[in-house]
Write a structure and sequence with these properties.
- There is one protein chain.
- The chain is mainly alpha-helical.
- The chain has a domain of 49 residues.
- Helix content is 56%, strand content 11%.
- The chain is built from 6 helices and 3 strands, in the order H-H-H-E-H-H-E-E-H.
- The chain has a 3-stranded antiparallel β-sheet.
- The longest helix has 20 residues.
- The termini are far apart.
Length: 98
């Protein structure tokens, strides 16, 4: 184990900055309402896999305006409620894997 000696002033400065970071992290943590986002949106690959449809089908639905979406970087996200409405309307046929 190495022991590092530093001046008291430097240590106190470091400690103060660390406390500020911890305080900031505590104040900016996700609230339960922020975590709700995960339940409202689903990533395209996950959606395609769960519906057993190709990604191209989702792209066609986006292009035709039948399904709105948001992109973050290179990932495409869909509103779960809107996907459910589309399923209920019968515009997407879900097949089961055998």
């Amino acid at each position: 184990m190495d022991i590092v000696a530093i001046e008291r002033v430097s240590f106190d400065s470091f400690r103060k900055k660390l406390e500020q970071i911890v305080s900031w992290a505590d104040n900016t943590s996700l609230s339960p309402s922020d975590m709700r986002i995960e339940k409202e949106w689903i990533e395209g690959r996950t959606l395609a896999a769960s519906l057993n449809i190709p990604l191209r089908t989702l792209q066609s639905l986006r292009e035709s305006g039948k399904l709105s979406f948001s992109t973050v970087g290179k990932k495409v996200y869909y509103k779960v409620a809107e996907v459910q409405k589309l399923l209920d309307s019968g515009r997407i046929k879900v097949t089961t894997k055998e």
